[in-house]
Amino acid sequence: MRLHHATAEVPSRRDRWLAAGLLLAVLAIAYGVLVHPWWTVPMREADARIESLQQRELRLRMQLQQAPQVAARLHQVREQYADTPGFLPEANAELATASLIQRLETVVAEASPGNRSCAITNRSPLDSDNRQSYRRVVAQVRLRCGTLELSRVLYLLESGSPRLFVDNLNILTETLYLSRNQSVDMGGLDVSFDLAGYLLPLDAPTTAGVSDAP
Fold first, then answer.
1. What are the TM regions of this chain, as residue ranges (predicted)?
2. In this structure, what are the phi and psi dihedrals at residue 21, rounded to the nearest 5 degrees?
3. How far apart are alpha carbons 76 and 98 in whole angstroms?
């Protein structure tokens, strides 16, 4: 009788372990099918969003703390614009081009009153590459001048305010050909160049510019 009782107890214990294993497997499957996709994953995504928002809030708070320094720097830059004029004060390229040409006419008239020894033969606006930080305005100019008058014109253009720049300067001597083997130097110069200036950056004050235009 004792032997029969011990033999019957062994399968019962094995069944209990098997049932426990099956229960764990069912729980794992239930977690994978029901709990993980419907609870764990959304909670992790929510935690990630909360962390991202916290980091963004921290960055915004740090930027707000720097606001007084930024405002002080902006005020300093504006004072620099006001004290050192260098940029063209016009609001757009069309007005700035007209200002360039008017400046050219004034300078030529000053260097040669009545255009006796220096005259403008052509002036026209040029399209320029404005992908750089500062908007560049260019006018193509052609003059007929004497040597001294040309020197005076170039000096007045590049030494005044706002700052202007003379680029692509070409100078040819005017010569009169009398015959096949004879020519006379007429003493005049045929001059062409690009006259350029820079507009204020779009986010800068429009009343003045900086002398350090590129």
1. 20-39
2. -65, -40
3. 31
Percentages helix, strand, coil for the chain (3-state, rounded to 5) are 55, 25, 20
Q: Are residues 169 and 193 in contact, defined by beta-carbon separation less than 8 angstroms?
A: yes
pLDDT tens-digit series, residues 30-55: 766 666 666 666 777 777 888 888 88
Q: Which residues contact 188 (CB under 8 A, 6 or more apart)?
A: 144, 145, 146, 173, 174
Residues 88-108: b if buried by 16+ CB within 10 A, e if exposed: bbbeebeebbebbbebbeebb
Tell me the residue ranges of DSSP E strands in the chain.
Answer: 118-126, 136-145, 165-179, 182-198
Beta bridge partners of 124: 140
Residue 87: exposed, middle, or buried by beta-carbon count in 10 A (0-12, 13-18, 19+)? Answer: buried
For 64-101, write each residue's pLDDT tens digit: 888 888 788 877 766 766 555 678 888 888 898 999 99
Asked if the model's pLDDT at residue 209 lies above 70, the reply is no
Per-residue pLDDT of 144-166, as tens digits, reads 999 999 999 999 999 888 889 99
**Residue given tokens 């915004």 in the structure block:** 60
Nearest one of 175, 172, 177 to 147, comparing CA atoms:
172
Per the structure block, which two tokens stand in for 188? 């005049």
What are the structural domain ranges in the chain? 1-65, 88-198
